[in-house]
Design a protein that fits this description.
about 120 residues, Jelly Rolls, mainly beta, about 0% helix, 9 strands, single chain, 5-stranded antiparallel beta sheet
């Protein structure tokens, strides 16, 4: 039986540069059988845009929206994370999940993720 939650995955570790297109990092997580990924996005002051992507086959990736968890306020899923904080991403039906920085200036960014089902 699959665990209720996955182990913690570090998807970005003190990242300071854009890492997209052919330079996308290999840090991806298997989300098969899970429905939600919780992200903890932390970093220093500056600006950034973090993208979340999912794949069914490991070759074709599509952007997916993330919902920021702020003070219990319901928000709409948006592609492109531009602030530190907690986020959730619906990943049901996909096999792989990853993040990458499409823009960054004056910041160091770390992204940790855990997948859940239920």
């Amino acid at each position: 039986m699959k665990s209720l939650e996955s182990s913690v995955h570090v998807l970005q570790n003190a990242a300071t540069t854009v890492n997209h297109d052919t330079d996308r990092p290999a840090e991806k997580m298997d989300v098969s059988g899970y429905t939600i990924v919780a992200l903890a996005v932390t970093g220093t002051a500056g600006t950034m845009k973090l993208e979340a992507e999912v794949s069914m086959d490991g070759s074709n990736w599509v952007k997916i929206g993330a919902i920021q968890q702020t003070d219990g306020v319901n928000k709409t899923a948006a592609t492109g994370i531009v602030a530190t904080g907690g986020y959730t991403v619906a990943v049901g039906g996909y096999r792989l999940f990853r993040t990458y920085l499409s823009a960054v200036s004056g910041t160091t960014l770390t992204v940790k993720a855990v997948a859940f089902y239920g």
